[in-house]
């Protein structure tokens, strides 16, 4: 079955395309862009062809999320690979990178294979597992990184925490450099964070909640960049939230170091001043910061210092998020709202063009991860996101596919809707089974 996507506005940063044209998909790959030659027509129309009219919509290389928590194995009551990847497909993602803080941790070749086996059975999109840096994520012993890469891991991370033993982390970075895989770094000095549960500032004081200072993040960002400089490892800094993180990354890039950074929608949309009550749906790690930090993150995205937009999708059970901010777990869901929040906060305000948004949600993530994708040039995988940048809607957590409903964005009016998500030439969203709820 071949696919003819007609009349869409093609946004492809890698190819420099920003124009209305057709796209022809054959055998799971892009066959042609624009029009077919007579010989190509004969070959393309020899088989059954599905026509998809994308008039008024943008056709983009599929989004890739460098940072999600699918929770399986061990925390299936929060999310499963099936529900999490379906939520991602609904959000326009054709690939995701699940973090290793599962139970047991994804810290060995066998666990990488387990994740891939479940994904092969249950996921409509590509799953690129991330292996843990240390055994059990306990920070004591380096994992078999080479074995995990051979089994299918695309990166390593200790996400959920930092490896506080700098010597051990340097060894892991050296191994990652040898294997040419990125290190996805969660930057948090556990010796500084204490019992902190939200950003240190006036709002934390008003609510009587212990604060988390910017230094908790900044100290480890600086350390990790220096270790990357020494080892030659490709360092990707996850969920950056402070103005100094942006400036550290800028300095690293100016020095020519292989350092990249991501920003999550909650960190460029909200500040700690938006937390009006003791509501744990506003609790994430790192926390919502102050206005100066948010403004600098936006500048960093606009200036090209920050390379990617990721979700840090972190579902939790409803009862867990009903607790006080001081006691509830960190994290919010994001797979189904990231595109609309990015369009609303970055594109509609003129900070990013639609083409630049695609670069940060598709082209750059593929480059950082070292996987095929991020472009719709002929011969590339037919992983495609089709969306309407102008259609508005109200975010309703009860319509989420994810099991997690923990979002601070419920009831917010936003622009940007996903019309189709296509993986290897097959439409995976809207879902054939029609199931939209998190109980799927």
Give a quick set of tags describing it:
single chain; alpha/beta; 6-stranded parallel sheet; 19 strands
Can you tell me the overall shape? globular
Strand content: 15-25%
Number of helices: 14
Low-confidence stretches: none
How many β-strand runs?
19
Mean pLDDT comes to: 97
**Helix-and-strand structural type:** alpha/beta
Largest sheet: 8 strands, mixed
What is the CA–CA distance across the termini?
28 Å
Residue share in helices?
A: 25-40%
Rounded to the nearest angstrom, the radius of gyration is 21 Å
What report would you give on this structure?
- The protein is of the alpha/beta class.
- The chain has helices at residues 38-44, 81-90, 109-122, 145-151, 166-179, 190-193, 202-207, 215-231, 243-254, 265-269, 291-303, 318-321, 338-347, 354-369; strands spanning 2-12, 17-26, 29-34, 49-53, 58-61, 63-68, 93-98, 126-127, 130-132, 155-157, 182-185, 198-199, 211-212, 234-237, 259-263, 308-309, 384-394, 413-423, 426-429.
- Strands 1, 2, 3, 4, 5, 17, 18 and 19 form an eight-stranded mixed sheet that branches. A six-stranded parallel sheet has the order 9-10-11-14-15-16.
- Helix 8 packs parallel to helix 9 and helix 9 runs parallel beside helix 11.
